[in-house]
Amino acid sequence: MRIVLLGPPGAGKGTQAQIIAGTLGVPAISTGDIFRANVSGQTELGKKVKTFLDAGNLVPDEITVAMVKDRLAEADAEGGFLLDGFPRSIPQAEQLRDSLGELGHKLDRVVELVVEEDELVRRLSGRRMIVDGKEVQRDDDKPETVRHRLSVYREQTAPVAGFYEGEGLLARVDAIGEIDEVTSRVLAALGVEGGGEAGQPAAV
Ligand code: ADP
Known about the structure:
Helix content is 51%, strand content 14%. It has helices spanning 13-24, 31-40, 44-55, 61-72, 90-102, 117-126, 143-166, 179-189; strands spanning 2-6, 28-30, 81-84, 109-114, 129-131, 134-136, 170-174. The strands form two sheets. The protein has a five-stranded parallel sheet with strand order 2-3-1-4-7, sandwiched between helices. Strands 5-6 form a two-stranded antiparallel sheet.
């Protein structure tokens, strides 16, 4: 299955992406994780993208699209994948469609995790990661940057849901609730067994 998981920062995309990809046996490809690994590894790519990440801005499309194209050409993505954090703009969505087309593939489903903005701000401001045994806050989870990321989402990424709705690929899933409840709703939206009423996208 070739799937895109959409949703604002703090909707739980990363968590759900890992579980769903594991269930389906496809790689979870997170552009945010790839960028962060490059920043902490101080690679050339990392040096190029650090200022964008720290400011909560999108990394320019030419960098992001080339990176995703390379990743999708790897052997483990041949039979399917779950993209988390990409596409994040209409041009990225169009370029993804073209790149997949060149490989003779297309997306099967796009799932949007829906959470209201007040809840997102609460979740992101309280979010901590464990790095080397220590609790740390992501630089871009600071309150001012969180607000900026949400406005970038509203302006540049939210229209991507409409793009996929127009292609008949979109399922909107309510992402408020326990992690396993949300997982069941996503699996149901994908028509996968174990996801409750298969084929019935959870209504919002
Ligand atoms: P979140 O969804 O919580 O904002 P991500 O880990 O998906 O977090 O993304 C973190 C940052 O990585 C973004 O704010 C942006 O700077 C960069 N990034 C990730 N994916 C993309 C993308 N598809 N296009 C441009 N920038 C991206």
